[in-house]
TrEMBL record:
The keyword Transport does not apply. It is an enzyme of class 3 (hydrolase). SMART domains: Aamy, Aamy_C, CBM_2, CBM_25. It comes from Acrocarpospora macrocephala. The keyword Hydrolase applies. Its EC number is 3.2.1.1. Belongs to the glycosyl hydrolase 13 family. GO terms for molecular function: alpha-amylase activity; metal ion binding; starch binding. This is Alpha-amylase. Residues 563-663 form the CBM20 domain. Keywords: Calcium, Carbohydrate metabolism, Glycosidase, Hydrolase, Metal-binding. GO terms for biological process: carbohydrate metabolic process. It catalyses: Endohydrolysis of (1->4)-alpha-D-glucosidic linkages in polysaccharides containing three or more (1->4)-alpha-linked D-glucose units.
């Protein structure tokens, strides 16, 4: 729901709960698996993600943005989609045909689809929708007229603690409030939701449910066909007359206190989490709660962690998927510096395809792919073998099915832990490396600073098979990643399990290598990842690579070995820093070894000869190169140098030096 500045202030003032001891044997809701919220992704991108990532990872459902036609601000803001103009499926995310194709693709991948449903109100401004429909605040031709809305009155801040009637019958931030007590209005809303169900939608997130009387919601639900899963946005406020518990008879409820508590603990001391549960002041029971670290509102109003907290945010999500409370939902949106700005879009405001490599989308859910399998493996088990260091390192098991250690401190920790797992060697599904568990269930584990180790039954750490017979493809991948995996599908075959196989063969600086046995196949499709959720899938199209020796860099596939002396160039980039740019300088460009235009993987430059910053990389000879410099700021944003991209072509010789000055 659009929060606006007045509502942000109200929500921020309601953060309070006490910490007390509770039992830890609470069973999580079963049957859906983790939800992922792909917020502001267009339908084509959601379809690809279901096929390539969500299904293979084991996500149970994907929550998509409101599909109805809405007031248009030409893509300038994110919140226009929460001001519906009519119930046709002509949104800025795509057409009805694209929506239907997305639902079908997700179902084929084993992923359910939940639609964000805005049914409390219509618009508060604007006159034209993304679908070209004309309307006014209380007049929506062919759908609603002034008689279908509550008598206009605006919700005041004090109403939240003093007047439940006004909260549910007046206008939220001046949005025209539908009279959901009217049978006609209920029929229109139910008709819209039933139309989505007929297209295959499996559930609904009810936006602004707190502003609808529970009796009205129950009456609308009674008109729905089938049994769609309902989860409702009801923000908890201490002492308010409207409480989340009033809505649990209709469906599950979003547990806003959960994310607030996670921010408190992960910016404090996580050792206290040994008792985390209902008695910490959570607003709905375990079996009715949808839990999350952040959503599109809270990541902007500061009440929770968000992607800008980096490793701290990632570790909080590891806890979300490993601790038994509620049904977890992982959030992926787009990067932002202006909290009002809309997602990447074209000139008409329609959202463009998601590219997880261009720095404009967080694609955070990919970093949690391994933990999704962990959640599924341990579902229904109890917490045991708790250990903490009295500060910011914790570890615990989930029955005999899984074990996790979370290090939220700035120093690595090594010790022998009791895991409760059977003997064996397990891959770390929260990162890289393996853990060997002895016959007594103990394991000697090093947990790096600001990192996590998680192991579970049903996984086995085995070396990649040595290619024998048939066709082979030797693939070099240009990247700055410390580790790289290749997730591939031989022609006529099946995809490897996410994240694929490690590219662990010897190669030269800036390149990873893997030889794959194709048997009778002559080519493969592939995507690459760093093992922690960052992917290069060629803008959603994947790479097609033939048998023989190939190199993949900067979004292109070419033949040859970049590590041979006649096929590569040692390139030194040197830049003189200005006064304001003399810190955290990085290099990014169109080749994998330059970061592939993704600031998250940009190459750090050394300040040994400050104010000259420099880095030496191995690049393919005879290749056109584009690059730029950037500065990483303390708040998680980046500042690019001005002007056009720098360009040059690598020579056939063995060395080249680029000397630049900041623009």
């Amino acid at each position: 729901m659009r929060r606006y500045k007045t509502l942000i202030a109200i929500a921020s003032s309601l953060i309070a709960a006490m910490i007390v001891i509770i039992p830890r044997a609470e069973a999580a809701p079963a049957g859906y698996g983790p939800i992922v919220k792909l917020w502001s992704w267009n339908w084509n991108s959601v379809a690809r993600e279901c096929t390539d990532v969500l299904g293979p990872a084991g996500y149970g459902a994907v929550q998509v943005s409101p599909p109805s036609d809405s007031m248009s601000r030409g893509g300038a803001v994110w919140w226009d989609i929460y001001q519906p103009a009519r119930y046709t499926l002509t949104s800025k995310f795509g057409t009805e045909a694209q929506f239907r194709a997305m639902v079908d693709a997700c179902h084929a991948a084993g992923v359910k689809v939940h639609a964000d449903a805005v049914i409390n109100h219509m618009t508060g401004q604007g006159a034209t929708s993304y679908g070209g429909y004309s309307f006014s605040k209380y007049d929506y031709p062919g759908l609603y007229s002034a008689a279908d809305f509550h008598t206009p009155c605006v919700i005041n801040g004090s109403d939240y603690t003093n007047d439940a009637w006004r909260v549910q019958n007046c206008e939220l931030v001046s949005l025209s409030d539908l009279n959901t007590g009217s049978e006609y209005v209920r029929d229109q809303i139910a008709g819209y939701l039933n139309r989505l169900t007929a297209l295959g939608v499996d559930g609904f997130r009810i936006d602004g449910a707190k502003h609808i009387n529970p009796a009205d919601l129950a009456a609308i639900k009674a008109k729905l066909t089938g049994s769609p899963y309902i989860h409702q946005e009801v923000i908890y406020g201490a002492g308010e007359p409207i409480q989340p518990s009033q809505y649990t008879g209709i469906g599950d409820v979003h547990e806003f206190v959960y994310g607030r508590k996670m921010k408190e603990q992960f910016t404090g001391q996580i050792r206290w989490l040994s008792t985390f549960g209902a008695s910490w002041g959570l607003s709905v029971p375990n079996d009715k709660a949808v839990t999350f670290i952040d959503n599109h509102d809270t990541e902007r109003n500061g009440s929770t962690l968000n992607y800008k907290y980096g490793d701290t945010y990632r570790l909080a999500n590891v806890f979300l998927l490993s601790w038994p409370y509620g049904l977890p939902r992982v959030f992926s949106g787009f990067t932002w510096s202006d909290s009002e700005a809309g997602p990447p879009h074209n000139g008409s405001g329609f959202v463009t395809d998601t590219d997880c490599g261009n720095g404009q989308w967080t694609c955070f859910h990919r970093q949690m792919s391994g933990m999704v399998g962990f959640y599924r493996a341990v579902e229904g088990t109890s917490v045991g073998n708790w250990w903490d260091n009295g500060d910011n390192v914790i570890a615990f098991s989930r029955g005999s099915q899984g074990w996790v250690a979370i290090n939220n401190s700035g120093s690595a920790l090594s010790r022998t832990f009791t895991t409760g797992l059977p003997a064996g060697t397990y891959p770390n599904v929260a990162g890289t490396g393996t853990v060997t568990v002895a016959g007594d269930g103990t394991a000697s584990v090093n947990v790096p600073a600001k990192s996590a180790v998680a192991i579970r039954v049903g996984t086995t750490a085995t070396p990649s098979p040595t290619p024998t017979g048939g066709n082979t493809a030797t693939i070099y991948y240009g990247t700055s990643w410390t580790t790289a995996n290749i997730h591939y599908q031989p022609s006529g075959g099946s995809w490897t399990a996410v994240p694929g196989v490690a590219m662990d063969e010897t190669a030269c600086t800036g390149w990873k290598k893997k030889t794959i046995n194709l048997a009778a196949a002559t080519s493969l499709k592939a995507a690459f990842n760093n093992g922690s959720g960052t992917w290069d899938n060629n803008g959603g199209n994947d790479y097609t690579i033939g048998a023989g020796v190939s190199r993949v860099s900067g979004g292109t596939v070419t033949a040859g070995n970049p590590c041979e002396s006649n096929g590569s160039v040692s390139a030194t980039f040197s830049a003189t820093a200005t006064t304001t740019w003399g810190q955290n300088v990085f290099l990014v460009g169109n080749l994998g070894a330059l970061g592939a235009w993704n600031p998250a993987n940009a190459i750090p430059l050394s300040a040994t000869a400050y104010p000259v910053w420099s880095a030496t990389l191995t690049l393919p000879a005879g290749t056109a190169v584009e690059y730029k410099y950037l500065k990483k700021n303390s708040d998680g944003t980046v500042t690019w140098e001005s002007g056009a991209n720098r360009t040059f072509t690598t020579p056939s010789g063995s060395t080249v030096t680029r000397t630049d000055t900041w623009r």
